[in-house]
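I need you to check the entry underneath: sequence plus fold tokens. Let me know what the token row says about the fold.

>
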Amino acid sequence: MIHLYYFFEKIISIKRRIRASLYFVMSGIYFKSIGVHSKIRGGKYFKVGKNVSIGDFCWIEAVINYGNQSFEPLLSIGSNVSFSDFVHISCVTSIVIGDGTLVGSKVYIGDHSHGSYKQKLTIQQLSIPPAKRPLGDFGAIKIGKNCWVGDNVVILAGTEIGEGCVIGANSVVRGIFPDYCIIAGIPAKIIKELKG
């Protein structure tokens, strides 16, 4: 009986992958592979290179509407990019990920916040649940070619990461970083230059 259950689970999983693949092929977008239970939304606003693979339980979205807000995002993913499991990408303005980049598990990349925190807020503003606050603090994100983003990394709005960078696991990244360096920490900073 248990074997039958796993057999039917496998068939359902294959059907979901085929359905997801057909949707993206019909939209002009093709992924090399899409893992199980992954959500990919707003494909009309994606630009995707060749051989892009997406792991299990990923949520990759170009956000078009949120509450009363409307957006025209651009989520650009280069060729030979690989996303591990549990990656969450949320784009309302612009996120560009360069060719050959490897993104580890449980990574968040987002070009906005739930609310705006650049100035002090009133008690009335703070009493609104974060999920109901208008999106704010927008800033484009650019990740260069051939980067390695370690597990559990958070990349925040307004960040630019140069080519060939390594981002250490568990880092929180905001700012502008040059090519070929190791970035790590909370907040992340350059800890080593790789180019001799």
Summary: The mean pLDDT is 89. The helical segments are 2-26, 123-126.
